[in-house]
Design a protein that fits this description.
The protein has a six-stranded antiparallel β-sheet with strand order 1-2-4-5-6-3. It is 33% helix and 30% strand. The radius of gyration is 18 Å and the shape is globular. The longest helix is centred in the N-terminal third of the chain and has 19 residues, at 16-34. The protein has 189 residues and is an alpha+beta fold. It has six helices and six strands.
């Protein structure tokens, strides 16, 4: 390759995918700086709060986030009514023996997105648990993809059951997996 071609490549604009990945990383760092750390919220910290208020308090650092997020290298990025977005960083420690990210990592990230989307829809005094989770992995994931996001949305919210779905996408917009869930809704005790 000639010196002029090398110089041209060095000054070329970053790809749109790289720009999105960098923006996602900056957003995650900004959010992480506000978080209080891993742990469990005390009962008085969540008493009388809706699911959306609890999830918002977590994002604002008023209550801790689950330690599992550090173990699996993902974090909550955004919440809204019936919506939750998580971001994950595929790492070698998440690989299966075949050299790609283990399906359990996909499932956990997607379960978090769909479950927390349901959580944002719940009134004060209600909880949920996953009754069923179905995932489809549409392509393998490796560390060549720096970040992925799981976008969860509620489809149906009833008194005792809720359903939601999520898409896991890379910064290039490619679909890596999608999931659906059914959650039981019950009274806090």
């Amino acid at each position: 390759m000639t010196d002029s071609l090398l110089a041209e490549r060095a000054t070329a604009e970053p790809s749109p995918t790289k720009l999105v990945a960098e923006a996602w990383q900056r957003e995650a760092e900004r959010i992480l700086a506000n978080l209080s750390g891993p742990g469990l919220a005390r009962p008085e910290q969540v008493a009388g709060k809706t699911g959306l208020q609890v999830m918002t308090a977590m994002l604002e650092g008023a209550i801790p986030y689950p330690a599992m997020a550090e173990t699996l290298d993902f974090q909550l990025i955004e919440v809204g009514p019936g919506r939750a977005v998580f971001q994950g960083r595929p790492m070698l420690k998440h690989y299966n023996p075949l050299g790609s990210v283990h399906g359990g990592w996909f499932a956990t990230l997607l379960d978090s997105a769909v479950g927390c989307a349901v959580h944002t829809s719940l009134p004060a005094g209600k909880s949920y648990t996953t009754a069923e989770l179905k995932i489809n992995i549409t392509r393998p994931l490796t560390i060549a993809v720096p970040l992925v996001r799981a976008f969860g949305e509620v489809i149906h919210l009833g008194r005792r059951m809720a359903t939601a779905h999520a898409r896991m996408e890379g910064p290039d917009g490619r679909l890596y997996a999608h999931a659906s869930t059914t959650c039981f809704i019950f009274d806090n005790e």
